[in-house]
Design goal:
Blueprint: H1 2-20, E1 68-73, H2 94-104, E2 118-123, E3 136-140, H3 146-163, H4 170-176, E4 181-186
Parallel strand pairs: 1-4
Antiparallel strand pairs: 2-3, 2-4
Amino acid sequence: MWRGILVLILLAISTVAADAQRREINPIPFSHEPCSVLDGRPCTPSYCSPLEPGPCIPEIDYPYGQNLQLTVESVPAEADRAKYQRPDHDLDTIGDLFAELRTCWSPPPSDNARAGMQMSVRFSFNKAGGLIGPPRLTYATAGVPADTRTTYLNAINSSLKACLPLKFTGGLGGALAGRPIAIRYVDNRELGK
């Protein structure tokens, strides 16, 4: 009997102490404070407990921007010329991969091209640097005839096939395998002059 009373008294004291030391919850997502190894609890709420009073707002780092996106122009701007140079070594970084993909692009001949044409494709690589399936068309400039879209899609496919297989290092190949890559091709050439 005395044990039961003692447990109730301790529970009441801990509840009062918890209310006195009420944890401030910052409602702004991802506004982290520095953590210490000596902290007795997480410094930002990463879990919710039914014993905590008030609202619980867990902070979960959602995977924003997990797909790789790249824009390739037919005529790069003067400031971007360095990004269009082929790496002279095995591809070890995302920057190396993007530079390699930029140098692979060869737009269709000007007699079959359309000024301002944009087309986006999405695909994935395997560890060996080959494609997992054909590139999938995700966007084409509106109002463009079907034969022009087909011409650009064929140019994209032949440009990628000419560069494959890419030579990844082991680390980059393992990190990229199966991850979606989206490339937007922009034909910004001045045609018809």
